[in-house]
């Protein structure tokens, strides 16, 4: 194949190394790298996928007995879909313990961000003008809404579950690279701050932090505990929907 002969420049190699060391190291300890991420990386560097994959394989994944891959991103050794790869949620895990796999720079940015989110829960300044609906914030800030989607998104402003740390900012050596827990806000940042030919969706894909959020597994309304954030949200929404049905029946 022609693409095999393409050589990466030193600049491209250093870009790959920096991305790999900041973003992929934790995941790659299981010798698995998402092919979408490598595709996105190749798109950013405007080179074919294969030389990028070859370089990562040679440099990090299998330095000693690396065999060039002909078709797919080879060295998964069947572990890519191993459900044991991610430890199950442990309620007593601290954020730091749960995210030891992150690069130390990333981890300290993440800790700072999440702590700031969690501090918000104490605020209840009563300034909200539109604050109505069956779905109430469980963190005590007084927010209410009529839409389940907005409720969950609001809950995640107190307890983030997904994070994006801007790869382009990081590569530029920004002291405070853009970090956010909302996809829409990240895309806006990528569009506004990096107009120079970066595809926002590609930057998004490359900037996703392999973050494990924490939360209180205990339902605030009943003795139920939940193993995942999804289950927790579904369960609490169930309470609110029951309440709404009860009150409409009384009318
Ligand atoms: Zn709230
Ligand atoms: Zn950025
Ligand atoms: Zn409950």
From TrEMBL:
Gene3D superfamilies: Classic Zinc Finger. Residues 72-94 are annotated as: Disordered. InterPro entries: Znf_C2H2_type (IPR013087). Residues 135-158, 164-194, 217-239 form the C2H2-type domain. This is C2H2-type domain-containing protein. The lineage of its organism: Eukaryota, Fungi, Dikarya, Ascomycota, Pezizomycotina.
């Amino acid at each position: 194949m022609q693409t095999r002969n393409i050589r990466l420049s030193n600049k491209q190699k250093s870009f790959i190394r920096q991305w790999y060391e900041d973003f992929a190291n934790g995941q790659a300890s299981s010798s698995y790298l998402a092919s979408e991420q490598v595709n996105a990386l190749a798109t950013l560097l405007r080179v074919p996928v294969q030389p990028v994959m070859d370089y990562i394989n040679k440099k990090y994944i299998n330095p000693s007995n690396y065999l060039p891959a002909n078709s797919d991103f080879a060295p998964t050794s069947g572990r890519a879909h191993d459900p044991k790869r991610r430890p199950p949620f442990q309620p007593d895990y601290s954020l730091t313990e749960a995210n030891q796999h992150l690069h130390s720079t990333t981890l300290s940015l993440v800790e700072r961000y999440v702590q700031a989110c969690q501090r918000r829960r104490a605020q209840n300044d009563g300034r909200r003008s539109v604050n109505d609906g069956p779905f109430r914030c469980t963190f005590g800030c007084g927010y209410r809404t009529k839409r389940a989607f907005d409720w969950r998104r609001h809950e995640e402003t107190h307890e983030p579950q997904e994070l994006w740390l801007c790869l382009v900012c990081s590569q530029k050596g920004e002291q405070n690279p853009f970090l956010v827990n909302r996809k829409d806000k990240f895309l806006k940042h990528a569009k506004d701050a990096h107009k120079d030919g970066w595809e926002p969706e590609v930057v998004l894909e490359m900037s996703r932090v392999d973050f494990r959020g924490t939360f209180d597994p205990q339902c605030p309304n009943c003795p139920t505990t939940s193993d995942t954030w999804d289950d927790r949200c579904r369960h609490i929404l169930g309470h609110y929907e029951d309440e709404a049905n009860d009150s409409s029946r009384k009318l």
